[in-house]
Design goal:
Number of helices: 8
Shape: globular
Number of strands: 9
Oligomer: single chain
Helix content: 25-40%
Structural class: alpha/beta
Strand order of the largest sheet: 3-2-1-4-5-7-6
Strand content: 15-25%
Length: 227
């Protein structure tokens, strides 16, 4: 299959797709960090949507869409001009996602954290967690699907533990560890936290490329007719 993995600099999903023999390409405005520049298209993804793809898997930026990002609208002392700029950026982010989902491709998946996309676009088809795919982390991830099935958990493990800062504030261990690792560098922190967990990447690659919607529909019809 020829597959476009949009907004992915980590190449996590692209690498898993390549392992299965698919012609997969990551695309992002940033250089790739996955180690395979020959599979990376460093450019705006929108022109690529005009090409013919068998599948598109997209990880659009969530800066202006996630619940965490939307908190900036109510930030203390934020000016109305600042709020209006963020509202405009949110609108543009939603339109970007609509452009991807509207591409001439039968199989499309959009991934994003819990946020305003559920109200400004539509509710997700599925919400998954890393601990459903072998990673002891609590991080709700929404999936909007077109012509693709919901992911099935591959390895359910214990949820992330809760730790406390010096001030006693509770926080998940993964969130604390990533913050410590990036030493306050917010750009690096954003990149690290947005990377797809390997267990989820493997599940996407294996389950979505093996899915035959026509066969599934035929099987359902067979069962309905008492076969």
């Amino acid at each position: 299959m020829k597959i476009l993995v949009a907004c992915e600099e980590s190449q996590a999903v692209t690498i898993e797709l390549r392992k299965l023999g698919h012609e997969a390409y990551s695309c992002d405005l940033y250089p790739c960090s996955g180690g395979y520049p020959q599979w990376h298209l460093q450019q705006d993804v929108l022109p690529l949507l005009k090409d013919k793809w068998d599948m598109i898997i997209a990880f659009p930026p969530c800066t202006y869409l996630s619940n965490a990002g939307m908190c900036n609208l109510t930030r203390k002392n934020a000016s109305e001009e600042y709020r209006e700029q963020r509202r405009q950026k949110t609108k543009e982010a939603v339109e970007f996602i609509k452009a991807i989902i509207s591409a001439d491709c039968d199989k499309i998946a959009i991934e994003n954290p819990v946020g305003v996309l559920s109200t400004l676009y539509r509710k997700p088809d599925q919400i998954i967690q890393p601990f459903m795919f072998g990673h002891s982390v609590n991080k709700k991830t929404c999936l909007w699907l077109k012509g693709l099935p919901k992911l099935k958990p591959t390895k359910i493990v214990e949820k992330d533990t809760i730790v406390h800062w010096g001030n006693g504030k509770p926080i998940s261990k993964w969130y604390r560890d990533t913050l410590t690792l990036c030493k306050g560098n917010l750009e690096e922190l954003s990149k690290l936290r947005s990377k797809t967990f390997q267990g989820i990447a493997k599940a996407m690659a294996a389950q979505w490329t093996n899915y035959d919607e026509t066969k599934q529909a035929g099987d359902a019809c067979f069962l309905i007719n008492g076969g």
